[in-house]
Amino acid sequence: MTSAKAKPIPGGAILTYHEVMPESNYSYCVPCDVFKQHLLLVQRYAAQETGAQVQVTFDDGEWSQYLHAFPLLSQGNIPATFFVTPGLVGSGARFLGWSKLRELQDAGHSIQSHGWSHKFLTSCGQQELAYELRASKERLEDRLGRSVLALSAPGGRWDRRVVEGCAAAGYRCLYVSEPWIALPMSGIQVMGRFMVRRTTTLPELARILNRDRGTLWKLKMRSGIKQCLMGLMGDGVYHRLWCRLTGYVDFEEARQNSTS
User: Fold this and answer.
1) What does DSSP assign to residue 148?
2) What's the number of domains the chain is made of?
3) CA 133 to chain CA mean position, Å
């Protein structure tokens, strides 16, 4: 992540979901009934506000997003952006295939890049970084026939080198995990998103939608603590601990399972 000076987003909020399922122990899995309540809140907010639209986004391109989130988005007539990793499309039983991604796109949703293989971009060498960015963009455009101009940073890891790599690869927007951020950098618009968790309450979500400065400040302080822990422990150790605490199945394990 970056140490660049950040500021509150002067427009609508950007929400990010991962899994949407009836139930799960994963911290970033939102139950279906709760997700439906979130969409109703988004609709009410959109009806009350002018010029400050809420963006609903999804990371990873997992099956639960198609099975459970897609029908609810259709019921509410809410467009979403799905950030996917082409290197994992259709692998195993976890990730959507190209036909389902085309179905989402044909229904009015946007399919954008989440890197080629979900590697943390800040840990990539220069050639690997260029490949993660370019290969993902080119494969998505080739298979889906639409321009890919946005990327969400896997694991929320980003820095100035990643931003410059995005610019070189032809992206225009980089989405990151800090919801208070909105700044131009090296020709790229860096956009912060709120990571919705299983424990996110409706009042908390309402404060995010209203860009409540106190809530954004608390999230910024929490992010600072996280950065300190990552610096002390190292990113690899921190990520393994995070996976254990949240119930997350690492993408490297998914890659190994898909090739075994």
Assistant:
1) -
2) 1
3) 15
